[in-house]
Specification:
Number of domains of chain A: 1
CATH superfamily of chain A: ACP-like
Largest sheet of chain A: none
Number of strands of chain A: 0
Radius of gyration of chain A: 12 Å
CATH class of chain A: Mainly Alpha
Order of helices and strands of chain A: HHH
Number of domains of chain B: 3
Strand content of chain A: under 5%
Strand order of the largest sheet of chain B: 2-3-7-6
Oligomer: heterodimer
Helix content of chain A: 40-55%
Shape of chain A: globular
Largest sheet of chain B: 4 strands, antiparallel
CATH topology of chain A: Non-ribosomal Peptide Synthetase Peptidyl Carrier Protein, Chain A
Shape of chain B: globular
Structural class of chain A: mainly alpha
Radius of gyration of chain B: 21 Å
CATH topology of the largest domain in chain B: Butyryl-CoA Dehydrogenase, subunit A, domain 3
Distance between the termini of chain B: 27 Å
Order of helices and strands of chain B: HHHHHHHEEEEHEEEHHHHHH
Strand content of chain B: 5-15%
CATH architecture of the largest domain in chain B: Up-down Bundle
């Protein structure tokens, strides 16, 4: 299956944040599910920079704007990121 | 130095990693038997990794050196077969004398087969009697009419036992190395060429490495790579590239080891707490991360210099020394993290330690890198 923005982000969350088998619904709240916290949020921001070249401004670093996979993907699309 | 990868670069890096992860499912068994994976070699060729740096019009990927390093780091992050990576890098980076110094006509003849992986290349420099003092080599090429005749023996030739194209450095005159050495392309099946069997050894076992002897091998004049007598300059320039490029394998391995350790440290250990609850463990893994990131910095700085047309003898030596030594320290951290399990065959951890140890030897030992660094400071 071809990679999509959602699949790449989800793979990062599962492999590099959760370190193992897990499922993440694209609309699931990542904080309530225990996937993201303050430190792993910074890791997600770092990943978006390394993988997609998307640099997130301090003003945009509102954790609530990145609280689901679909919202992260929407941010990436707004920044013209491609797989 | 500025590293600002494009979206296409990032995608290609990620694709290289995913592709690499498909290639070595049977690595533990092949490591035990020292078996080279021909189908994986063909797959690497098919995906362009055996000619990344070669010009596009000659069948290569046409990538500049910095992008080549980035793609090969991605490949190495996915591909858990240090021997196969050594073979691929000995082929591509080891044969840079062709890409850097061969005439346009020679490149047209030789590069397509190199880039496509139709031929397997090896670089033959080291000799048993002179070891790391490469320029004291005694292998000799004497000009006799319309050919050179080659006599001598090289050791530690990566791909040597299987290569059908061998780049050989030999003495063509007496005197100072900078005017007395030359580089030749020899076919592996020529009369007088003996490719000795793979040498059983500690690590990187899936790459065939062994001596190659040359006993009166007749070499056409136009198989002298570039100009006669320019071998030392070619060697030095090629080594700058090789020492950087070949260490992408160690970066990939360190990154993979780090990820495995992190997973292990976070895993439940009922009724005991996960390893990550112990600061002794988390600090070791922080150290591993620092080993990886400092290694990346020096390696990419050196690659950037080469890519922008600068020379990088000091930076290449620092890269080789830092990355290879950091790799070994990282593998030891992984063993400490896994405890006794890290010593067990089949886990991949002890294999990484054995492979990392070999990294201190090839492409110039750690002491040779220190000699270069010191020499470049005038001492």
């Amino acid at each position: 299956m071809a990679n999509t923005l959602a699949s790449v982000v989800t793979e990062f969350l599962i492999e590099d944040i959760l370190y193992g088998e897990a499922e993440i619904d694209p609309d699931e709240d990542l904080y309530e599910a225990g996937v993201l916290d303050s430190m792993s949020f910074l890791r997600l921001i770092e990943f978006l920079d390394h993988r997609f070249g998307v640099v997130t401004d301090m003003e945009d670093m509102d954790m609530a704007r990145f609280n689901t996979v679909n919202r992260v993907v929407a941010h990436l699309r707004a920044m013209n990121a491609t797989v | 130095m500025q590293l600002d990868w494009s979206a296409a670069d990032r995608s290609a890096h990620a694709a290289a990693r995913s592709f690499g992860a498909t290639l070595a499912p049977d690595i533990e068994a092949r490591d035990r038997t020292g078996t080279f994976d021909h189908s994986a070699w063909a797959a690497l060729a098919e995906r362009g990794f055996l000619g990344s740096f070669a010009p596009e019009n000659l069948g290569g990927g046409g990538h500049d050196f910095l992008r080549t390093v980035y793609l090969h780091e991605g490949l190495a992050r996915g591909l858990d077969d240090a021997g196969l990576l050594l073979a691929a890098h000995a082929h591509l980076f080891g044969c840079l004398p062709i890409l850097l110094g061969a005439t346009p006509a020679q490149q047209e003849r030789w590069v397509p087969g190199l880039a496509a992986g139709t031929h397997t290349y090896a670089l033959a420099i080291t000799e048993a009697a002179t070891g790391s003092d490469a320029f004291a080599m005694t292998t000799r090429a004497e000009r006799q009419g319309d050919r050179y005749v080659l006599h001598g023996e090289k050791v530690w030739v990566s791909n040597g036992p299987v290569a059908d194209r061998i780049l050989v450095f030999a003495r063509t005159a007496e005197g100072a190395p900078m005017s007395s050495l030359s580089c030749f392309l020899v076919h592996g099946d020529q009369d007088g060429v003996t490719r000795h069997p793979d040498v059983p050894r500690l690590g990187m076992r899936t790459c065939a490495v062994g001596p190659v002897s040359f006993d009166g091998v007749e070499v056409p004049l136009d198989h002298c790579v570039g100009r006669e007598g320019a071998g030392a300059q070619l060697f030095l320039s090629a080594m700058e590239h090789e020492r950087i490029g070949i260490m992408t394998a160690a970066l990939g391995s360190m990154d993979r080891l780090l990820h495995r350790c992190l997973r292990h440290a976070r895993a439940p250990r009922e009724p005991r707490a996960p390893l990550r609850s112990h600061q002794a463990v988390t600090h070791r893994l922080a150290a591993l991360r620092m080993e990886l990131e400092t290694s990346r910095l020096v390696l990419y700085q050196a690659a950037w210099r080469i890519s922008t047309g600068r020379r990088a003898p000091t930076e290449a030596a620092i890269s080789k020394l830092q990355v290879s030594e950091a790799h070994l320290r990282a593998a030891l951290i992984a063993i400490r993290t896994f405890g006794g399990a890290g010593l067990v065959e089949g886990t991949g951890i002890e294999r990484a330690y054995r492979d990392a140890t070999c990294g201190l030897m090839y492409s110039g030992t750690s002491d040779i890198q220190r000699n270069t660094i010191a020499g470049m400071m005038g001492i």
